[in-house]
Amino acid sequence: MEIGRLLTAMVTPFDANGAVDYAQAKRLALALLDSGSDGVVLAGTTGESPTLSHDEKMRLFSEVKEALGSRGAVIAGTGTYDTAESVELSREAERLGVDAVLLTCPYYSRPSQEGLYRHFETIARAVSLPCIMYNIPGRTGVNMTAETQVRLSHIDNMLGVKEASGDLAQIAQVVDEAREGFRVWSGDDQMTLPILAIGGYGVISVVSHLAGAQMRQIVQACLSGNVDEAARTHRRLLPLMTVLMTAAGNPPGVKHALNAIGFQVGAPRLPLVEPDAEAAERIVAEVQRQHIDLAVAV
After folding, report:
1. Looking at the whole model, is its pTM more than 0.85?
2. Is 178 helix (H, G, I), strand (E, B) or coil?
3. Active-site positions?
4. Which of 32, 97, 118, 269 could form a cystine bridge with 51, CB 3.0-4.6 A?
């Protein structure tokens, strides 16, 4: 399975009682492929992984993969702050047939660079699946340096990294020094264009829930050398990218936007809450201003 350049970090739909709505998750994943995504990341940050039980995660991986088949990649969020648990989750996800796993830097414990290396090495060597690391120091409290990423890139099944450090110098060093074929996806929609410009591979996106075709245009325009076209689309989407991240945080912002356009995904689980009235108004106003690529069944 080709993992693809545009992946959506998918929300987890919940029903009115707060239970995972697996049928709606399958509908959403298919709609995302139809609107431009190459695949979906399940049970990541946007998918509210800290609030999903082990059984919920595994059923979500299994049902969405069954629905997508060979049409698109399913990347399972199996990384936690516990290396042994991450190995267990990754092995079980592999048995269910997912196409790759996403492994976040361990959060809260703030390990050293050697600790980070051994954490990711241990998980990668426990499975045969492609592994994608996720560097997001704003959430985890620790930055995985370029040197550590480059060192990890030499593990055969370490496919790449989702980079959300915001440090272009660090990201450029990874692009330049990692083994050939190691992929760098932007982990921040607003950084997509500059990361592509310095040799990044693609983006693991949130705004692609609503603007998948347009995000795909950005990637393809960069690849074809049409930077002006890519920049125009990127600038047009920047206000939407911003409001989804800042008005109520992620994923409450994008969940509210999806609900507003008629694709029901429910409210976030505690400790996350729905946007207040002012934030909700800002989100809806920007959504109404933008062209929305996601098809909503009537």
Report:
1. yes
2. coil
3. 134, 162
4. 269
